Amino acid sequence: MNIRFSALLGITLTSLMVILAVFAPLIAPYPMEAVIGGVWEGPSNAHWLGTDMIGRDILSRLLYGGQITMLVALGASLIAFTLGSFFGLLTAVRGGWIDNVLSRIVDLMMAIPTLIVALVLLSILPLNLWVLIVVIGVLDSTRVFRLSRAVAMDIAVMDYVEAAKLRGERQNWVIFREILPNALTPIIAEFGLRFIYAILFISTLSFLGLGVQAPFADWGGMIRENKDGLVYGEIAALVPAGAIALLAISVNLVADWVLARTSSLKGGRDA
Question: CA-CA distances (angstroms) from residue 92 to 140, 184, 249?
Answer without folding.
Answer: 19, 15, 33
